[in-house]
Write a structure and sequence with these properties.
The chain is mainly alpha-helical and 93 residues long. A two-stranded antiparallel sheet has the order 1-2. The protein is elongated. The N and C termini lie far apart (97 Å).
Length: 93
Amino acid sequence: MATKMAYKQASGGVRLNTGPLIFGAELIGVGTVLLMAGFAVGSMTLMSAGRRWLGTLDQPPAEIVRHHWEKTKAATLAGASAWQSSGPARSSH
C-alpha cells in the first residue's frame, strides 16, 4: 500500500514534497534554540571564570593599566628626549 505524500505544485511546474521541507524547517528551529542555550551557558561559564581570575589579582586591573601607562609615557618621553638631543643623523657611508 502506497503512503500518501503532500506535494505542492511550485511555479515553473516543479513538484515539491512539502513533508521534508517542513521537517527541515523544524530542525532549523530546534537547532537555533539549542545554539542560543549553548551560547548562554558558555557565556556564563566564561564570565564566572573571569570574575574568579580578577579576584585572584593583587591589584585591580585599572591600577595595573595605570602603572603600565605611566611606564609607557616615561619611555616615550625618554626616547623623544634622546632623539632630539642626538642632533642630525650621520650617514656611515
